[in-house]
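Why run this: before we spend reagent on co-expression, it is cheaper to look at a predicted model of the complex and decide which construct boundaries make sense. The entries below are exactly what would go into the expression plan.
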Amino acid sequence: MAEVAQESWIKRVIKPEENEKFKKNGKDFIDEARIQETLMAQRNPDRTHIREIMAKALELNRLDPEETAALLNCQDEELWQEMYKVGLEIKHKVYGRRIVTFAPLYVSNYCVNNCTYCGYRAENKDIHRQQLTMDELAQEIRALVGVGHKRLIMVYGEHPKSDVNYIAETLKVAYGTKEGNGEIRRVNVNAAPLCIEDYKLLRDVGIGTYQVFQETYHHATYQKVHRSLKANYDWRVYSLHRAMEAGVDDVGIGALFGLADWKFEVMGLLAHTIDLEEHFGGVGPHTISFPRLQPAVNTPFAEQSPYLVDDETFKKLVTVIRLSVPYTGMILTARESARIRNDVINVGCTQIDASSNIGIGTYSKEKTDYSKQQFILGDTRSLDEAIRDLAAMGWITSFCTADYRCGRTGECFMGIAKKGKIHNLCMPNAILTFKEYLLDYASPETVKVGEPLIEKEFNALPNPQVQKIVSEMLDRIAAGERDLFL
Amino acid sequence: MSGKTEAASRLDQQQERILNLHQEYSRRYPGLILRWSRIYGSRWAHFLGGGAAVSFVPYKLALNNNFGLCIENSEILDPADLDIIVSELKGEFA
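The model came back. Tokens follow.
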């Protein structure tokens, strides 16, 4: 009976007519032949050309596919070193010396799909299935708020048990749960593609960013590794077009590196960005994610793919993404080890997760349970440890959620970011939220590293008027006020 | 029959009114930067104005549960003019 109901639900999910308006001559925007030709045409880029492209990126211009292809094909190690520096410079120019931090919260791991690389695939019987009740979710939220988190990415498998109504309810619980001085101020969602009507439901309950990763942009590979609902390439590749159409104007794209050729995937991410910008008045993705395939329980594919990306290549691909889309947020997750993260942050990443636990219901129990995890994490530092390490490297941790609470979303956010003005707001807000963290949650060791960093960044604020405002707000925070922002 | 609910029609009317008010205030107070938002829970989603302007103390006003306004440079207004705008908007949208 349950299987019949599930099959009936699956048949109702996909509404192909909602994609038609975005297609060109009935085709999607990933023109594989053209991508391959472009990569081939740029296979021997000369040094001058690479440096011209770096200069263009430094002026915060999005690169054209030919330029990205040239960077991907660069063989000159000296130029790569220059590109790493340019990546960091772009990051400083757009976002400043700060890293936004969030926690992933896995809410339900029931899934109808059978993705060969994923521990949550329906046929994996070694995974313990669980879906949080609203009470259990509130416990998880309290545990996360209790260590200082303000931002979440809530993750759901694709299943009738975790349909849009369930997701909407969980968002309400996440926003409504308080603990001491803390609360969750922005909830982003990573879930399956939805129809326009369903996206509107999530928009109405105050969603932050909606993330859907294409996993691979390569059509044949996509068909090979996906079965059931997720096998529909078009439904997924246009999912964020539909979200934008529904008024969810912050969306996040991503590719799972290790499924197909890494250069192709970077070109796919760029094509996705360009297509969104073309359809939505210059507004592309709010964030780009670039997870690497990781080992998972009873999932041999994850260790056998011929396209696994090594650490050096990973740093290069992150750098090329940074240069190709200079104004977009870039998320580096705890799939990577602390060593890799500390290195790759320095080529332009803007967001990381910390104290991550990707089992269901495990934050409140403070334990790791591999039988409930989608994959195995590389970085298991606590939030306090991660923040302390970042501070020692000169990065201030930001829990800022101001933009989407002041109408600086979508077109407005992109306009500010593309003009390199966002750091005027981001750094003051980073200082203010970091101060809150140090007062309410940090260990004495982290306070010791954090306070001098606040002072340093405060003194570096270029505008005396901003300094005055921030100074007053810091005094108010010290006196007990919270959630102050510019 | 448009098929729209009464609530949806009211939102459309309010949005239309905001478009007019945006033009009116821009004419009445040249240089004033207004950024209007649709409010969804704690999310203020941009829908009109503001451009790439960045100010440090925007005047933030929730018109009702559905719409909000940030005046990016309210300091260029005489306080009495700001009061007039606030009272007009409150009167119309509350």
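Residues 77-95 of chain A form the longest helix (19 residues). Residues 385 and 402 of chain A are 25 Å apart (CA to CA). Bring this page to Monday's planning discussion.
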